[in-house]
Design brief:
single chain, Rossmann fold, UDP-N-acetylmuramoyl-L-alanine:D-glutamate ligase, 11-stranded mixed β-sheet, 6-stranded parallel β-sheet, elongated
Length: 448
């Protein structure tokens, strides 16, 4: 996992360091200089422009420029006051004008040269990723010790280019927010015992309604592909249609939750809501299941609407609950859509509900009530199509059924879901395509 620090957290980490600020700047400047040298692919005849502001960010850039000069590279430095609107011809621009502590706006000068950003492209808010003017489009950003939210949250993520984290000797062990990497998935993947039985990892999926049976099918198939040994599917008041391998279990249209109480303890997890519909009887059923089911549960779609802002219902559960809202469903739960401080808001939501909250979007944010937060950023717009959320809830449920903790199951589900999407062309993918890609991703990841 790669640590993520807000600008204020990073400032506190800087101030707590036993190293002097001068030493830290020298280390940062050295890292930038070596990064610039790699991008230049040589030193002979190269010209670099260093845009250096007043703060530590500018100091890092000036140190980098001094290193480049020692290597025979012509480095020209501009302060913000004397920077021309159009830069002279050069081989590389080092953007060290403003860091994550920018105030006001910044409009980058015109250049055709590639740009190496120091810490974060000037003009990007380090906390929210918002544009504060017209930033450079960096080909690479070198940041120090930890990523910043603005690197990962759009539109900031569109301006950072390749992200590199340089170790300059700061202690970031106090941080609780991390970006998930493939190595984390390898560590978390559950193994199956040699004497495993299908009921060791059983999952019950309840959802579907007239015209929405596809959601139940997608979820059940995804749970099986993710490793659930037995998947039971139920649709209140109707026949549940899933995969060939799933087992359909009929439920009445009303008070259907009463049919679960004698059998649900046999299951390791349940998934509520995909395509369920928002009838009063379904809302009552979901709320009652939350009270009686002493197993981990994943709530998606209409189950989230059924809970609404009754947070006590979630806090009263002893077993883990994972909610997977998109922005509108987040509004159902907490009264407003997430704003620019998405990570902070999801963390507060997890604490408020004593549940794991997975906020879907261009960047997936997964927060635990214990304060930990995982960011999954390998997804893209291919997943912005109907049914992909049902696949995600199925993958998470499949991992939960195998005994994985809720936070890790949600993070793995989001990462594998996104990775599966990457295996298809940029255009033409539909949600059902993801199902058969899940085993390929799992096996490729497991093999390193």
């Amino acid at each position: 996992m790669i640590p993520i620090a807000t600008p204020s957290e990073m400032k506190s980490i800087d101030e707590a360091s036993t190293e002097s600020i001068e030493i830290l700047i020298q280390r940062a400047g050295s890292a930038i200089a070596w990064g610039a040298r790699r991008l230049l692919n040589g030193t002979y005849g190269k010209r670099v422009i260093v845009l250096a502001g007043k703060g530590n960010n500018g100091a890092d850039g000036r140190v980098a420029g001094n290193y480049l000069k020692k290597w025979g590279i012509k480095a020209i430095e501009y302060s913000p006051q004397d920077t021309p609107k159009e830069l002279p011809s050069c081989d590389l621009v080092i953007d060290a004008t403003f860091g994550t502590g920018i105030r006001g706006t910044y409009n980058a000068p015109i250049t055709e040269a590639p740009v190496l950003a120091v810490d974060i492209p000037s003009g990007i808010n380090g906390l929210t990723g918002e544009k504060m003017g017209s930033p450079f489009q960096a080909c690479q950003t070198i940041t120090f010790q930890a990523l910043k939210p603005g690197h990962l949250l759009p539109p900031g993520s569109d301006y950072t280019g390749e992200l590199l984290v340089a170790d300059i000797g700061l202690d970031v062990s106090s941080l609780a927010t991390f970006q998930v990497e493939s190595t984390d998935i390898v560590r978390w993947l559950p193994s199956r015992a040699s004497n495993a039985h299908k009921w060791n990892s059983a999952c019950w999926v309840i959802g579907g309604s007239p015209g929405m049976s596809g959601a139940l099918s997608l979820t059940s198939q995804a749970a099986q592909r993710a490793g659930a040994g037995y998947v039971r599917i139920s649709s209140p008041g109707g026949y549940a249609d899933g995969s060939l391998e799933s087992v359909s279990y009929p439920l009445p249209e009303k008070e259907w939750e009463k049919c679960l109480s004698g059998d649900i303890h046999r299951f390791k997890t349940g998934i509520l809501g995909p395509g369920l519909g928002q009838s009063i009887s379904n809302a009552d059923g979901v709320r009652n299941v939350l009270s009686i089911a002493q197993i981990p549960l994943v709530l998606d779609g209409d189950a989230i609407s059924a809970v609404g802002q009754d947070h006590h219902l979630l806090r009263s559960r002893k077993e883990e609950t994972i909610l997977t809202p998109h922005d509108r469903e987040f509004e159902y739960l907490f009264g407003s859509k997430p704003g620019s401080r998405r990570i902070e808001e999801v963390c507060k939501a997890a604490e408020l509900t004593d549940s794991i909250i997975l906020l879907k979007g261009p960047v997936t944010i997964i927060a635990s009530p214990d304060g930990r937060c995982f960011i999954v950023s390998n997804g893209d717009s291919r997943l912005a199509t109907a049914g992909t959320g049902d696949v995600l809830s199925g993958i998470i449920g499949g991992f939960l059924a195998q005994g994985t903790s809720g936070l890790e199951a949600a993070a793995m589900g989001a990462w594998i879901h996104a990775k599966a999407g990457q295996s298809f062309p940029k255009r033409g993918m539909v949600a059902s395509d993801l199902i058969n890609a899940i085993p390929e991703v799992l096996n490729a990841t497991d093999m390193g």
